[in-house]
Every structure is written in structure tokens, then in C-alpha cells.
Amino acid sequence: MKMHNFNAGPSVLPQEVLKKASEAVLNFNNSNLSLLEISHRSADFV
Fold this sequence. Notes:
Layout: H1 15-26
């Protein structure tokens, strides 16, 4: 059974969001760079 959290704090993220985030950690927007390697000030990140 899948749990649901309706509290004001952190909640469960949809599987689609988790999948996309995990892919971005390896290759962000097909840039061949990890999301963790890109500056938050770069055009790719914004």
C-alpha cells in the first residue's frame, strides 16, 4: 500500500519527479554534465 503524507512538512514526491531528478544528476538536459557540476548562475541551470 502506498503511503500519503498530508502534513505541512516534507512529503512524498511523485515517482516521475524522482526519476527526472535522478536522471539530471547524471546528465542534465543532455549537456553531458551532472546537475551537481553546473553553476547555479549559468544559463543552463536557469
